[in-house]
C-alpha cells in the first residue's frame, strides 16, 4: 500500500508557474507514495491533478498580502488551513507534509505539530530579492521548525545558509524534472530569421523591462528578434504596460506572445534562450532550454553557474547580474554563430538527460519521505 504524503501547494492564478509545474512532475510520478493536495484555488491545475488521480482539497487563501494588509483575512486563512489539514491528516494517516513554499509551510505548521506523528518538509523554490534586507529572524525560526528542507540546487542551499545559519541543519538537494520527450533536443535553426526567447510571467523579478531597454536595441541592430512568452496583460499590469511601451521603438523585432502552452515548440524556433531575472531558484526556462538543445545566457542568479557551467560543462554563458551589454554580446554571438550555439546545445541536452531525470529525482524525494516517516 502506498504511503500518503500531503502536498501543501499555493497557487497565484498565473498560468506560467514553474514551481507548480515542477511539483506536478514529482507528484504524478511518485511510485511508493500517494499524493494528497491541499491548495487554495480550484483552477485548471487543480483539475489537472484530479485528472492524474490525485486527491485535491481546496481551501481559499487570503494570507498572501500579509497580516498588516489583511489581518482578518490572514487569521481566517490560518484557521481554515489548520482545520482542513488536521482533518486530512486524521483521515489519511499521512506522516509527511510537503510544503511547497514558505507561506504553505506557515499555514501547515500548527496542524503538523499538533498531530505529533507527522513531519513537515519545506521545499524552497526561490531566493530572496538581493536589493532587500532579508528577514533573518523569520527564516531562522522557520528552518528551526522544519523537519527537513528541500533545495533545488547546492547554490540555493548555500545562499539560504547566508541568510540563516541553520538553513542546512537537515536538508537535501534535488533538481527538478524535465520531460525529455516533451522537451526533446532538436537542431538549432540555421535560417536568416534569428530569435532570442525570454520565458516567464511579466513581473519586476523577471527583469524584462531592463532587458528591453538595455539588450533588445543591440539585438535589433543585428536583425535578431526577441520573443517574450509568459502571462502578459498590459491593460491590467503596470509592469507589463511599461515593457510594452519600452519595446515600441523596436516593435518590428519584438513579440509579446502571452502565456504559451507549447513552450517546446517555441524553443525549437529559438537560437538561444535568455534569463534576465533579478533573482531565481532553479529557473525552469533554463533547464527546459537545455533539454531542447538550446544554449542559455543568464545573469548570475541562483543555480545558473552550477547548472550551465559546473554540472554541464558549457551549456551556456553566465554574465554578471545587471551586465546588460555582456548579456547582449553573448546572445548575439549564439544567435549569429550556429556552430557555437549547436555545441552548447549538445552539451546542455546531454547534461539535462542526467541531471533532470524523472526516476532519479523522484527517488530522492521518496527517500526523504521514507526517512521522515520513520522518525
List the helices and strands and how they pair.
Blueprint (H helix, E strand, L loop, with lengths): L2 E7 L8 H10 L5 E7 L4 H8 L3 E4 L12 H22 L3 E4 L2 H14 L3 E5 L12 H10 L2 E4 L2 H10 L7 E3 L20 E6 L8 H7 L1 H6 L2 E6 L8 H10 L6 E5 L4 H7 L2 E4 L8 H9 L3 E4 L4 H8 L4 E4 L4 H13 L1 H18 L2 H17 L1
Helix pairs in contact: 3-4, 7-9, 11-14, 13-14
Can you tell me about this structure?
The structure is a single chain. With 375 residues, the protein is α/β, with parallel strands linked by helices. The chain folds into 2 domains: 193 residues, Rossmann fold, CATH 3.40.50; 162 residues, Glycogen Phosphorylase B (Rossmann fold, 3-Layer(aba) Sandwich), CATH 3.40.50.2000. 45% of the residues lie in helices and 17% in strands. It has 15 helices and 13 strands. Strands 3-2-1-4-5-6-7 form a 7-stranded parallel beta sheet, with helices on both faces. A 6-stranded parallel beta sheet has the order 10-9-8-11-12-13, with helices on both faces. Strand 9, helix 9 and strand 10 form a beta-alpha-beta unit. The longest helix has 22 residues. The chain is globular, with a radius of gyration of 21 Å.
Amino acid at each position: 500500500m502506498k504511503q500518503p504524503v500531503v502536498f501543501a501547494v499555493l497557487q497565484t492564478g498565473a498560468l506560467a508557474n514553474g514551481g507548480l509545474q515542477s511539483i506536478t512532475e514529482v507528484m504524478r510520478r511518485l511510485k511508493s507514495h500517494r499524493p494528497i493536495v491541499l491548495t487554495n484555488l480550484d483552477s485548471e491545475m487543480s483539475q489537472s491533478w484530479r485528472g492524474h488521480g490525485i486527491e485535491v482539497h481546496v481551501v481559499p487563501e487570503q494570507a498572501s498580502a500579509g497580516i498588516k494588509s489583511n489581518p482578518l483575512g490572514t487569521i481566517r486563512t490560518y484557521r481554515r488551513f489548520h482545520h482542513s489539514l488536521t482533518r486530512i491528516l486524521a483521515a489519511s494517516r499521512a506522516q509527511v507534509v510537503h510544503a511547497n513554499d514558505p507561506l504553505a509551510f506557515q499555514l501547515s505548521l500548527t496542524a503538523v505539530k499538533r498531530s505529533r506523528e507527522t513531519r513537515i518538509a519545506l521545499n524552497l523554490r526561490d531566493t530572496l530579492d538581493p536589493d532587500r534586507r532579508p528577514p533573518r529572524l523569520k527564516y531562522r525560526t522557520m528552518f528551526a521548525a522544519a523537519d527537513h528542507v528541500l533545495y533545488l540546487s547546492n547554490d540555493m542551499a548555500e545562499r539560504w545558509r547566508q541568510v540563516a545559519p541553520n538553513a542546512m541543519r537537515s536538508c537535501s538537494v534535488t533538481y527538478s524534472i524535465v520531460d525529455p520527450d516533451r522537451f526533446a533536443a532538436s537542431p538549432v535553426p540555421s535560417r536568416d530569421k534569428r530569435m532570442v526567447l525570454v520565458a516567464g510571467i511579466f513581473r519586476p523579478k523577471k527583469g524584462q523591462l531592463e532587458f528591453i531597454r538595455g539588450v533588445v536595441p543591440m539585438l535589433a541592430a543585428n536583425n535578431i528578434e526577441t520573443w517574450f512568452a509568459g502571462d502578459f496583460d498590459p491593460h491590467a499590469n503596470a509592469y507589463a504596460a511599461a515593457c510594452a511601451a519600452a519595446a515600441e521603438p523596436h516593435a518590428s523585432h519584438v513579440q509579446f506572445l502571452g502565456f504559451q502552452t507549447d513552450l517546446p515548440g517555441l524553443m525549437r524556433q529559438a537560437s538561444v534562450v535568455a534569463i534576465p531575472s533579478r533573482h531565481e531558484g532553479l529557473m525552469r526556462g533554463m533547464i527546459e532550454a537545455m533539454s531542447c538543445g538550446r544554449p542559455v545566457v543568464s545573469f548570475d542568479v541562483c543555480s545558473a553557474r552550477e547548472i550551465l557551467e559546473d554540472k554541464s560543462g558549457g551549456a551556456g554563458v553566465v554574465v554578471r547580474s545587471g551586465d546588460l551589454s555582456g548579456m547582449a554580446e553573448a546572445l548575439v554571438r549564439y544567435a549569429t554563430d550556429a556552430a557555437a550555439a549547436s555545441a552548447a546545445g549538445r552539451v546542455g541536452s546531454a547534461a539535462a538527460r542526467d541531471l533532470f531525470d524523472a526516476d532519479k529525482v523522484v527517488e530522492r524525494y521518496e527517500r526523504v519521505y521514507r526517512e521522515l516517516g520513520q522518525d
